[in-house]
Amino acid sequence: MEEELRFGPFSIVPARRKLLREGEVVPLGSRAMDILLFLIAHRGEPKTNTEIVNHVWPTTFVGEANLRVHMSALRKALEDRQRDSQIIANTPGRGYTFIAAVESGNKDRNEPSSANRQTWADQPTSRIFGRKAAVAAIAGQLARGRLVTIAGPGGIGKSAVARLAASNYAGEADVVWIDFSEIGRGELVQTVVASALGVISRTDNILPEIISFLKTRRLLLVLDSCEHLVANVAEFVEKLLAQTSEIRILATSREPLRAEGERVHRLLPLELPQGRMKAEDALASPAVQLFVERADACLGGYELTDEDAPHVVDICTRLDGIALAIELAAGRLETIGVATLSRSLSDGFRILTRGRRTALARHQTLRATLDWSYQILPSAEQQALNALSVLPGWFASDMAAAILSVDETDDILAALVAKSLIAAATPSGETLYRLLDTTRLYAAEKLKEAGERHAAMTRLAEYLTALFESAEHELYSVSMEEWSQEFGQYVASLRAALEWAFGESGNGLLGVRLTVAALPLFFRLSLLDECLACVTQAIRFLESQPGLDERRRMKLYAALGWPQLRSTDAPEFGVAAWSTAYRIAEELADVDYQLRALWALWVDAINRAQPRLGLTFAEQFGARAPLSSDPTDAIIGRRMKGATLHWLGQAQEAREQLERMMAEYQRVAPQRHSVRFQFDQKVTASIIHARCLWLLDHEDEALEEIEETIRYAAEIRHDLSLTTVLAEAACPLALLAERDELAADYIQRLRDHTKALSLDVWHTYADCFEAELHLRAGRHQECLRQLQRGMPVLRGAGFILFQTIFQSVEAQALSRLGHHEEALAILDAALTHCESSGERWCLPELYRVKGLALLAANGPAAAQTAGHCYRTALGIAGEDGTKRWEHRIRTSISNLPAPINPASDRDAALNSDIASHASGIAP
User: Does position 343 have pLDDT exceeding 90, yes or no?
Assistant: First the structure.
């Protein structure tokens, strides 16, 4: 019997895909029929255009115009006017709803009955998560073809999805389920099928009887677990489909059957949550839903909490969304907690045991599942899978070839992909491969058992060393968009190779070579924590064997100080490391590394707010730069000198140096984005140039240059350069320009960016910059809290570049809270530092704030000393040409509550000077 659906004057038998009007066939195209059946199946539910398109055209991209054409044809066939719709309502901007009342009945099928017809009522016994789209896609493929194979790795849920798809199909035809998992010999395929169908044969060739039995029947045969019998099953189904017309076959296998007419549905892992999240958000993920449902069943009551959510997300992610592995993990909650389970997954094959007693043997533990896949591999594929386990991330075929050292790499990769043991993707045209973590851990055990891990890791480390050495210039000097390949994809393998190299059974010298070769990549990708750890290990190894490799020791010491340029907890070894690198470079007559070391010593001096010392290093750099083979080194020397002049208070001279430098740099290296000196040179020059523009009273130009530089740094995808422009130009200049909303935006961007990258120095800078916003909003205590928490951290790490300007903000907050003596002491300490170090760029501002603090502390009685501070501030600003400071000083004077009453001729002269400045007249 077939279900007949009736609405108005129409009736439809879904199994026959025929629309009738009062018994007469209504012509209707197949797409319009698909739309109608979909809407009827969801009658009363609004369906969006996207949902309809995804259902009707699941594997083809079509525009909504296509949908409108077929919907128009459907409305015409149904005589359903859009304005006065009785059948399909259209909600503009939302979609379509089938609104007609539907009655159902039965209609005789014109098929012979048979006592031997098989019925199947094996419904899924537990909920299935995240597979609705897969089941719909499989149904669509079964409608278009007679053989569909669900392929995927062991434990991903192929059988469960096939069971659900078959149960949905049971309304259209009888279903026969045939499990091949316990069949060891391919010649038994036909016998097992015949037994399931109830076909009895008296000859050795049972195929003709099977075909004869099925010729007039409408059946769905589900052939489960075909992977170990693919050749025999493929041959069988081809013959069966060629000599029948109504049979459809749904197979499950870890690799496609590769039979004629086969459609393959690759079953993907369950969708995983992205990042750390709360319970409510995590439960949107099917993988988490499955874990929670199984945990609830296991414990007799379990609800996901915000405390558990990060651990559950980690568990599901580390298990790659593999359904069986997640079920097994949830089952262990009888004896251990969620957090412990998350920590224990490094030994997944011990933890992921104790599946359901009724499950197939190969599904009761994760190891058994993988054993099933591994044991049916040819020896060459087993060895290849073992060796590839040393690659923890995505890899290309050339990398695989280096690890395997065989000529048939492409064929082996294709075979392992077909058998769902390796995943493949083409994100940018090139095919990349990856072992799921569970498979990789299993294969890694096999590799270790075979005693072949050392050889495989050696090949991996040598491959990466050669790759990075050959790409050194490209990594240093070419934008990431122009890289010949995506070098970031090698980071996971790099980590694994270095961990092995410096381990007990590794190769320390190879680890040194790899560390040095990878330095440009570490810096380009801003992986400075990892750089520090690896460099330290490599130096320790070389120090234990003096004279083994002085050139690489020099490079390692040069790199050792670099992480200190942004880490608030780095040891105090920066200057010592750079000095050692410089000494070795002199012994080796290596100009390149002499320059690198001088640059690093200059950076340290500037970060420690010692511009006078910095000028010495900048001039030494400039003197050696002409000896370099790289013409940009002399240009970089000019940038260093220009930046130093800025901190020394010589804004106009600094601007001229930097403008000359940027013009030369553009001419010599217009497409060069060098991070040889850690930061992009165009970015660092623009940072100081913008600061000079502001000081010289070109505020709008300065802010425009900052925005342009931020865009450029983002385009070249260099995190350190982008962070630097936010910290050293965007945030401070927006504050100096009193653009509070813009400053708040820049500060938040700096905080978000540095938090994601663990750039703790600049994250602390963000807190200190924000303190000034608190000051302006009258939140003086909050201002002090942030500064007094952040400034000691910066001082301890040697980052006091902005200490004096932060001290001016701190003094203002203290003064407004009535702590006048403390405020004046802080300002005097800042002025003393400026005198000893040569720092002068903000000296007028310090004297201005001191004048304000004196007046706040003593009122009119401080007229003489406050007036002296203002005159000093104006004198310095006038001498340096920093008109912005002049404006700020005059504004402060004009805001004084009342003229100071002169007590003497000298005080009267001071009042006259102050008044003249307040009115904009030069003294």
Answer: no
- Which tokens is 145 given? 């073809």
List pLDDT tens digits, range 705-737: 999 999 998 887 777 788 899 999 999 999 999
What local confidence, expressed as pLDDT, does residue 75 receive? 85
Q: How far is CA 88 from CA 23, 74, 295, in A?
A: 21, 10, 43
Neighbour-count burial for 79-89, b at 16+ CB within 10 Å, e otherwise:
ebeeeebebbb
Residue 670 has pLDDT above 80, yes or no: no
The CA-based dihedral angle spanning residues 802, 803, 804, 809, taken in that order and rounded to the nearest 10 degrees: 90
Residue 155 contacts residue 355 (beta carbons within 8 Å): no
Q: For residue range 3-57, what is the model confidence (pLDDT) as tens digits?
A: 788 888 888 887 777 888 887 888 888 788 889 988 888 877 778 888 888 888 7
Say how many CA atoms lie within 13 Å of 495 toward its Cβ: 9
Q: Which stretch of 65-69, 112-116, 586-590, 841-845 has the lowest confidence by average pLDDT?
A: 112-116
Per-residue pLDDT at 628 exceeds 60 = yes
Nearest in space to 417 (alpha carbons), one of 451, 444, 452, 381: 381
Give 302-319 as a DSSP string. ----TTTHHHHHHHHHHT
Residue 772 to residues 64, 90, 738, 826, 852: CA-CA distances in angstroms?
53, 56, 10, 16, 16
- With 0-12 / 13-18 / 19 or more C-beta atoms within 10 angstroms meaning exposed / middle / buried, residue 194 is middle
Report the alpha-carbon distance of residue 2 to residue 763 in Å, rounded.
Answer: 68
Give me the pLDDT at residue 922, please.
Answer: 30
In DSSP terms, 20 is beta-bridged to 11, 25
Q: If you ran DSSP here, which 8-state letter would residue 435 be given? A: -
- Residue 101 has φ and ψ, to the nearest 5°, of -70, 140
Determine the Cα–Cα distance for residues 88 and 102; give it in Å rounded to an integer: 12
The structure tokens listed for 315 are 């568990």
Distances in Å between the alpha carbon of 486 and those of 198, 395, 491, 498, 894?
58, 11, 10, 20, 59
Distance of CA 341 to the CA centre of its chain: 25
User: Strand pairing partners for 98?
Assistant: 88
Other Cβ atoms less than 10 A from the Cβ of 604: the count is 21
Q: For the residues of 61-79, what is the DSSP string, one character each?
A: ---HHHHHHHHHHHHHHHT
Structure confidence by residue, pLDDT tens digits, 380-424:
999 999 999 999 888 999 999 999 988 889 999 999 988 888 888
Burial of 15 (0-12, 13-18, 19+ CB in 10 A): middle
**φ, ψ for residue 593, nearest 5 deg:** -80, -20
Residue partners of 369: CB distance under 8 A and separation at least 6: 154, 155, 324, 362, 363
How far apart CA 579 and CA 582 sit, in angstroms, is 5
Per-residue tokens: 241: 């489909």
Reading the block at residue 65, the tokens are: 């115009």
pLDDT(499) > 50: yes
- What CA–CA distance (Å, rounded) separates 262 from 865? 93
CA distance 804 to 768: 12
CA angle 604, 605, 610 (to 5 degrees): 150
Q: Are strands 423-425 and 432-434 parallel, antiparallel or unpaired?
A: antiparallel
Residues in the chain: 923
Question: Mean pLDDT, to the nearest integer, of 748-766?
Answer: 78
Specify the long-range contacts of residues 706-713, CB closer than 8 Å, at least 24 apart. 706/730, 706/733, 709/682, 709/683, 712/682, 712/683, 712/686, 713/680, 713/683
Distance between CA atoms of 765 and 763, rounded to whole angstroms? 5
Per-residue pLDDT of 547-581, as tens digits, reads 899 999 999 998 887 655 444 444 455 788 889 99
| DSSP conformational letter for 881 | T
> Is residue 655 a contact partner of residue 697, using CB atoms and an 8 Å limit?
no
Report phi then psi at 431, rounded to 5. -75, 130
Do 197 and 210 form a contact (C-beta atoms < 8 A)? yes
- For residues 354 and 358, what is the distance between their CA atoms, to the nearest angstrom? 11
CA distance 667 to 634: 13
